[in-house]
Amino acid sequence: MKKGIPIIIAFDNNYAPLGAVTMYSVAQNTESPVDFYILEKEVSDKNKRKICKNLQKFSNVSINFIDMTKFDYLAFKEMKTFSLSAYSRYFIPEILPDEDKVIYLDSDIIVCGDIKELYEQDLDNYPLGVVIEDYTKHYIEHIKIIFPQHEGNVFNSGVLLMDIQKLISGGYVQKLLDTNKKYSDMLEWPDQDVFNIVFNDNFKVLDYKYNPLEGCFSALREAFPDKADEIEKNPYLIHYNGPKKPWETPKTNMTKHFWRVVKKTAFRKNICKKYNAKDDREIYYLFGFIPIMKTIQRPKNFYYKMFGLTLLKVRSMI
Predict the structure, then answer these.
(1) Domain 5-210 has what CATH class?
(2) What is the pLDDT along the chain (318 residues), one digit of tens a residue?
(3) Which terminal residue of the chain has fewer beta carbons within 10 Å of its beta carbon, N or C?
(4) Three-state SS string across the chain, please?
């Protein structure tokens, strides 16, 4: 298979099933060859085999596991809601020094469009392509407190389009590490704070659709209602960045995309059991408001219900 679009994702064993869902969402929407690089810390052999099984039907996909235990994580501060795996993205230029451009994705993301579209965005000579958070005033204020000389927009680090050669020539790996050490006691969003301090408006601004934040979507809607409507109706990507993830909240127009992918993966039973979730349900309406049919996908069976009565129960093939 010819060289594919390099996509980086980082997770530990706990987040492996959810990272696998992200990967599946990319694979099912992309025809071009894709090379996944998993920056993993102590992911079990069982989960590695399952991740490979999860994507085995996609002939255009390759999977590469990168053992991150060789990197010194003792220097990083572990925070309650952030895994140490979040710091893995600092090292991407050292891990893939021969690549020209790569995509980094957090493992709480669902990709609904062809990842090639994001990969082919022109970086206009910048080392990084990002989606700004100019509608989240609290984060702008937070960065200003840590780093008063910050000049421009702030961004979310969950989706990064990276020019590897510019990052290498600019010595950005060491800059990230040095900045992390300097501001360690002030960080609240660990790697993201550091990326914003180091790059300080030295990045290409990408369209909001490439990293809409589900946890901040009401703020995006208030600031840019037309853009929010466009994203909600036809999302390219959804980043479930909020404190409550889609597997912890009632189903909404945004979270339904997550469950649609989950039910196709080899990890569906694990995710549903762990989070006690009914992993997908759809309601069909007559005239747009009278509910007539409901479908429910559960770990073992798929149910078709009409007016509360089960019409058909089909054994799941997964």
Answers:
(1) alpha beta
(2) 568 999 999 999 989 999 999 999 999 999 999 999 999 988 999 999 999 999 999 999 999 999 988 776 556 665 544 566 778 899 999 999 999 999 999 999 999 999 999 999 999 999 999 999 998 888 889 999 999 988 889 999 999 999 999 999 999 999 999 999 898 888 888 899 999 999 998 999 999 999 999 888 999 999 999 999 999 999 999 999 877 777 776 667 788 899 889 989 999 887 877 665 554 555 555 555 566 666 665 545 556 676 667 767 765 433
(3) N
(4) CCCCEEEEEEEECCCHHHHHHHHHHHHHHCCCCEEEEEEEECCCHHHHHHHHHHCCCCCCEEEEEEEHHHCCCCCCCCECCECHHHHHHHHHHHHCCCCCEEEEECCCEEECCCHHHHHCCCCCCCCEEECECCCCHHHHHHHHHHCCCCCCCCECCCEEEEEHHHHHHCCHHHHHHHHHHHCHHHCCCHHHHHHHHHHCCCCEECCHHHCCEHHHHHHHHHHCHHHHHHHHHCCCEEECCCCCCHHHCCCCCCCHHHHHHHCCCCCHHHHHHHHCCCCEEEEEEECCCEEEEEEEECCCEEEEEECCEEEEEEECCC
